[in-house]
Amino acid sequence: MMQSNSDAIMRALDAMNQKLAKLDTIDEVQATVTRLEQQQQDQQAAIQRLENRELDRGRGPPPQGVHGDRPPKLHRIDFPKFDGKADPLLFINKCESFFHQQRILAEEQVWLASFHLEGPAQQWYIRVQREEGTPPWRRFTELLNLRFGPPLRSCPLGKLAACRRTGSVADYSERFLDLLAHAGPLTEPQQVQLFTKGLQEPLSIDV
Predict the structure, then answer these.
(1) Residue ranges under compositional bias (Basic and acidic residues) (predicted)?
(2) Is the pLDDT of residue 116 over 90?
């Protein structure tokens, strides 16, 4: 009789243990489901943020005077190249604009410009470095103009004064501005006087 009661108690204990094990398994499953649901919610929130960002880009910049939380996006500017076959004035001007836009330090300017020299211009700069090292920017532009700019025997101001309209006003204006860039400092009245003189009759009377 005692053995029978003992067996019954053992069976009852086994049944309780199985129920407890099932309860532990259910708790684990529920915890796993909860984690998966949280991960899914996080993913959906991330996707929503990306979609909102794309929509904001599609709407374009905010109206003037209205600023978003993010700083304005700067456009990428490519550094100019120079091979010695054209007037170096445009190359120098673009370099200085790049330095200003990107806030390039003075001691890095010549290195950056020389890195973008090609062909004869690159060979020329190798000789410059051998003879006097890395020059400062102003010295670099002087040497570049001496080597690849207009011949020394030419007089830029004289060429500007002798410039005359022989075709359309647009062609004359373009040629005049090109010569003006090399002519050195001139006051605005002097520039106007030279320009109107080169227009020739009868246009110069109307200006």
Answers:
(1) 67-77
(2) yes
